[in-house]
Design goal:
Layout: H1 24-46, H2 50-73, H3 83-101, H4 110-131, H5 136-159, H6 164-185, H7 194-219, H8 226-247, H9 250-260, H10 265-277, H11 279-298, H12 306-331, H13 336-347, H14 349-352, H15 357-392
Helix pairs in contact: 1-2, 1-3, 1-7, 1-11, 2-4, 2-6, 3-4, 4-5, 5-6, 7-8, 7-9, 7-11, 8-11, 8-15, 9-10, 9-12, 10-12, 11-12, 12-13, 13-15
């Protein structure tokens, strides 16, 4: 198939994706998502309370669902061909405005945030509608997505006119109903390129990890001494450990599982559950870590406040628990070591409020290094065989 539509007279059309490789324009699109993630961290850093943390996570969930939509879209259409290129540019501009409004999404810029976000989602639905011409199953799925999108966006607009608990409740309801759409309307009609889809999510994980590194730099703006250097090195070591835990084996095996699944319902359900849904808590965990690292570099010798300690240690725990869910969804096995490590990190939260922030970062690094060492030792030859099979098979 060379195009998504044909007919008499000039019509806006979309060229269907042929290859699996991620296109440069997709990476370019992700740059505005980088800004949005950074702004989520900034929102929580400016208001490091339970309310601020909740607001940051709500914003992140909304942004994530928009990004996921475009990941599915560009697994169907070629983003660099025809009018789609210009539509992607327009969506980037709207997403940029969304990112700029994030710090005040629950305040004076709530309506601007919701309005710009509506443009991002409308462009997505419009492009999917064009791509689904001649494909009744895909068209039905797009119509269902349009319904849940309209409900979610409408609730965000309504939330911009409220405040406090009601506002947060409307945000949470918007996310629940919007993300619940594919669960209600089914997955049979969707299309995707499995290798592209898995790589796309791997790249966004790298972007999220990059945010934790950026947070270290922002936190150290007041000055760099011996304490800041030690904390920064420990912080980037933690980010490297998180990279290892995702990319060493888990992501490769999951990608292989997706590629070998039967095309249609089975493959789409795996993509929805493993990537669109389970990757959200992974990214959220990294963003919470970024907040903790930023606050650590600002005051390396002081204990972390309870909220920040919970964010940093709890964020990594969430990340590990999401990995456990990821593994269970793909191979049906429980990752006891990662669950246990998450429990240890949560147990460290009270201690983190009594010791220096740098020691807290060092402690979480020790937990992660022990976890990695235990997994490598236990898996041994199996790990090497899996990596070889995935990379060459």
């Amino acid at each position: 198939m060379s195009g998504a539509t044909s007919g008499r007279g000039p019509r806006i059309s979309a060229t269907l994706r042929q290859g699996e490789a991620v296109k440069p324009l997709e990476l370019f699109f992700d740059l505005v998502f980088v800004l949005a993630i950074t702004q989520c961290t900034a929102l929580m850093a400016d208001n490091p309370t339970w309310e601020g943390l909740a607001q940051g996570l709500l914003v992140l969930a909304v942004l994530w669902w928009a990004w996921v939509g475009y990941a599915w879209l560009t697994s169907v259409v070629d983003p660099e061909e025809g009018a789609v290129r210009f539509a992607i540019f327009a969506a980037m501009a709207a997403m940029l405005v969304v990112g700029l409004a994030v710090p005040e999404a629950f305040g004076d810029l709530g309506l601007l945030f919701a309005g710009a976000y509506a443009v991002v989602r409308v462009m997505h639905i419009a492009l999917f509608s064009i791509a689904s011409r001649g494909d009744p199953e895909l068209r039905r799925s797009v119509v269902g997505l349009a319904v849940s999108t309209a409900i979610g966006v409408g609730l965000l607009i309504a939330a911009s006119q409220t405040n406090h608990l009601l506002q947060g409740s409307l945000w949470a309801l918007a996310i629940l109903l919007d993300m619940g759409g594919p669960l209600v309307f089914g997955v049979e009609g969707w299309k995707l390129k499995p290798e592209h889809f898995a790589e796309r999510h791997g790249l966004i994980m790298i972007i999220a990890l990059g945010e934790s590194i950026v947070a270290i730099g922002i936190g150290a703006e007041a000055g760099v001494g011996a304490g800041e250097v030690v904390a920064a090195v420990a912080g980037i070591a933690v980010a490297c450990a998180l990279w290892w835990l995702y990319f060493d084996v888990v992501a490769l095996v999951a990608a292989r599982r997706l590629m070998k699944a039967s095309v249609g319902r089975e493959q789409n359900a795996i993509a929805r559950d493993s990537y669109s849904i389970i990757h959200l808590p992974m990214v959220a965990g990294i963003v919470l870590l970024a907040l903790g690292l930023k606050k650590t570099l600002e005051h390396v010798g002081d204990p972390l406040e309870l909220e920040v300690a919970t964010a940093m240690l709890g964020g990594i725990a969430i990340y590990l628990l999401a990995h456990a869910a990821f593994r269970y969804r793909n191979i049906g096995r429980v990752s006891r070591m990662r669950i246990s490590a998450a429990g240890v990190l949560l147990a460290l939260i009270p201690i983190a409020t009594e010791i220096s922030a740098t020691l807290t970062v060092a402690a979480e690094l020790v937990v992660l290094v022990i976890l990695i060492g235990a997994e490598v030792s236990r898996q041994g030859e199996l790990r090497e065989r899996l990596r070889h099979q995935v990379s060459t098979g």
